[in-house]
Queue: 3 jobs
Job 1
Amino acid sequence: MKSIIAATTLATAAAVSQQGLEAVQRDGLSSDSTMGRQLLSQARRVEDGNNQYNQNDMSWVGGFSIKFTGCHTVTQWINEQNNDNDGNADANNAAYDPTNGKIESVQLVRFRLCPRDSCFDHFNVGCSKHYGEYVVGLDSFLQAYVAYEKEASETGCEAYRQTCYNKCDQSNKPMCWYNCYKGYGINSAMCNNYDENGQYYEGLMDMEQAIQCSAYDTGADAQVDEYGNEVVQHYLGPMCSGQGGTVTLGLFDDDGCQVKSDKTVAYYQKNYGAKYIPHTSESIISTNCLSCLAADEDAANGNADYYNYDADGNKNYYEANNVNSLCATAYLASGKCEKELDSSEVMYPEEGACTYLEGVKRLKEDGIIRGNETVTSKPASIAIAFFTGAACLLAGYVGYLKHKIQKSRVNLAGVTTSLA
């Protein structure tokens, strides 16, 4: 049985180097280390007998389920490094030159940790009490999620690989592999391109490569299309489908996947016969509650070296003998708001990212965080409008009755005068 990944190295299937993951842990939500370290609040600290490092307990996470609650795009200022005449980065000046930077979109994932026995798939946020809320960079979360799903799908992928190959190798249907595996309850996007013997299967998509913003094969042989328009190079990468929406794959016009293309994958499939790409409309990340409990002792990997850095740059180690790789990696790289957690579960909840999370929830299309705006609720607005209208109608009716009564009194007074 394969061991789960440590937070210092993602699963082998994810092909992410230890150095790269260490940067993710250190910097947290983006390549901007200042932002990441501010959101990674002070970790729970329990010094060991020699005071050499901080030892923290993350085992409680094994009793929870992770629930994806939305993807957001944040607009922020990224400070770029100055270069000397030789093109080398000048580290001394980079952090202090406010004119040397650019506005960049950073994609974030919000998720909750809910108690396993009270996390519900149909509930958008999973649970309503005793939960922790977290925010983490989309790239970090996706790498951990895809590695986790590929590990979980490995047995099924191999079991039906030959069957689907026999059915789809000579097929001209672009969705053949996808539909074949789907018939067995397997997402083909989470299957490896290579089998255990190293044989490559062209019909399968490499999801690990797709989520890393890779060059997209449009299927066009010429440099211009039939209308004389230039066929430009596009890049395939993950994107948020609106603020608080799901995570899908889409096309971009730059190799950093910042500028969304006006062309779609469906366009190139229809006009140029490009390869079918799943998850261009359906979310890559499941909205179901996924248990954080490791499947068995081997998967728990008690010797894993889990750690992150706090806001002061201190290295904080975690014990997580029963926590699977997805939850451990996402938890360590996230900004945390644990004020709703049951104090009997977690003695020292972290609340360093609560304010930031509230700002993320209020994001509009421009991606600018507004921490002091009033949150509007459509149902509440409808209710207010209804009761305001009802109150106006009632006031009008009361006025009408008052007028009728006064008129009746006048008529009655006239009748009395006549009788006299």
Note: The radius of gyration is 28 Å.
Job 2
Amino acid sequence: MILTFYLLVNSATRWVVPGAEYFETNQPLNDLRFPSLYTSLSQVGSSGKRKWNHNIIFVAGNLTAASIVTGLACEMAQYRKNNVHIVFMGFDTLHLDAFRRINGLPGKDDLDGCTVYFHDARPEFAQHLTRNWQKIAVQSALQHINNFMHPQALIVAPKHEEEWFMDIVKEKSKELELVLIELPTDTTEDVNWIARLDSASLNAWHKPSFEVVIHANTHSGNLERLLKSLQSAYYPSPEHRPKRITIVLNPHISIHPSTHDFLRHYKFPCQHKLSIRRPIISKQDPLAATVKFVESFYTLSDHHSVLFLDPNTEVSKWYYHYLLFATLTYKYSSSQGPDTNSLFGISLELPSCYLDGRKPFLVESFNNTLFLYPSPASRAALFFAQHWCEFHSYVSHKLWHNPNAGSVTERIPLPC
């Protein structure tokens, strides 16, 4: 009786792994089978059935790409935030154990080494398949993997993959609504910070976007230097760069001819996404200047943020990497705390003084290089959309109820 009851309960709660015939793709000419994929996918567990899980997959279509992504995958696995998998979809005959030895990886039974799940998604007779059948094999393997694991993101190294392989991976990822992350460079060193992101952050890889607003109080070479630093910075991908740059010129200072010529030929991020404004405001009306500052940005998207830069600053070549990493970590991570939920933005500079006015500000007094501060930076700071919207509404209400604001109070405050 006890044994019968155990078998009934176990069969009702256990995730049933289909047989090897599940991995056959019926085609008019013959069957496309993935004999090694059955064994590894059966070890994924029941978490793969849930749409939201911690599975992250690195996909490789050849041995070179596999060697490139393996190092990053092993580093990600060390942080124990994700279930990291590497899927081989190439058409060579090298055994996975041989690949481990060549790349200095521990054996599959060594729990102290690279704790990554390896999956051999190469079909039978892979080396004899024609190009059309190779494309079908990649599509079928991705379909099986999605059915079993529902990965939160696919990570590939496109610079080491063949063009047809990337086309198939992009097409199938779009069809399955999978997040595809393309590593931007020949090595993973420039983006090794993504190993610290959890599955929820990686799933939001394409969500955050930024635009830059510069209020130029002077029209000197400092503005040109800032714009050149924005253009020459390293960006993770063509998609991850400022969506728009807005330059608000000071109406009370004439534009220098060299600055005028520089702005006419400046085309970053592209010509139609560069906006130059010169507001008409009175020099004796600071309130109007404040209103123009707040009005310089507004968005309806919760994922579109604004980076305010002083023209006398110059950004690091890695500034966008830091903004993207911090945004994905503190805004989209599944492990957000109460402090990060109320985070208004990210500063690119240290405060000049403490809240009580004492100087200098000593960062050594904090235990971490990243810390919360209740006062926003004035020279280089990113503000998240929802909080800037609240600030926009706050200023509108303050002006509406201010009897000394003159004609500005005629504006109707709109709720955020």
Note: Residues 1-17, 407-416 have pLDDT under 50 and may be disordered.
Job 3
Amino acid sequence: MALAPKIVIRPDDILKIPSPRVLADFDETPTTLGHWSCDSVELDILRISDLSGNETVALVHTDDNHLVSEVYTGTIPTLPVRASTLPVYHVSDAGSSGYGVFVSSAINRGELIMSEKPLLIFPQLLPYRNTASPGRQYAELEDAVAHMSSQALGWFFNLANSGVSEPSVAKGIIDTNSLHLGSFPGGARQYGVVCKDISRINHRQNFSLAIPFSHPLNKPSHSCSPNAAYHFDPYTFTCNIRALFPIPAGSQVFISYIDPASPRAQRQEKLSSYGFICACTACGLTGVASTQSETRRALIARADKDADSRNATLERWARTSSMPVDYINRFDKMYVDLFEKEQLYYEPVWEAFVARLFKASCALADRDGARKWASLAADLNRAYIGSDRGWDALVVSPERTSWWGLRLSNCQ
């Protein structure tokens, strides 16, 4: 490892290291859809278009109407123009699991795979009227769907419906294909979305009609070791899929809709309610390999338990020459190796480990190491939330942090 001399920088030039996101930063509202029985609820139907003619029908609570209007003012930005250098995807037959999304070219970590406006936005809790006439129990939802264009209706009703017991076909389709939007900026109520193509990655989507939902070979586009992540950008009104790991050309895109760090039995139980048995790379393991995977995931699930203590140890290490040079790296690198082994950079714990490895590299004036960890943090943040959160600047100039050369100067 080449060590650079300590660089003196002015306070105004110091780059701030992003604080790792913690559990409180994550929306843990259950993504399970439902309904409540009521005879009066005020919902509005909005038709929101961009300049290219892409239209979203939004069923929103009346007192959330102004939140949508204030952000979008009737017209939303057009989808980004897809340059020839950007990755391309296609929807193809995925065998026993129906249709799935595949990448046509190799994808790098953090890279955008898909971006589309949703067909429909709706409250996660829909009003239900059990005394209504058949087909009108979810009247507001049915009315919103009726406001779709003929083309959008074709896309919507071409999506799979595993909710055959629902009195409403539209309700069955959103139960099968929905993705979590969250709340609008400034709001509290939770919403879901359905998309034309992105919903095909949903693990509840497009089961083969020739195979029962419970058939063990029925493997929809869910994985407990996902290679991509979904997020909704409320300001561009787009649903986006980005890569969590490099994806080779021709490979299928997988996301996870459950807590992937929970024990296998719990994962299978949650997924069974959607009519299939998960046989992803993690769930398909047997014997010793399965036991080892379960152990790694248990460690990952509680990895942030001692975050404050580990951060304090890092501070002490940077100022104590008697502590081994690789003292910090050994522990945090072990967890990064777990993330890689399980193909699971688990939210919300991964960033704290990468941030400490970055700081440790800076403290040793190890530019190559610092840039490596900053680049990983930038790419993973892009994949999860669509923003590098300031890590890109640290890839370029890690020596501009207050941690640069800290251990070297304190231990001379």
Note: The first strand starts at residue 34 and ends at 37.
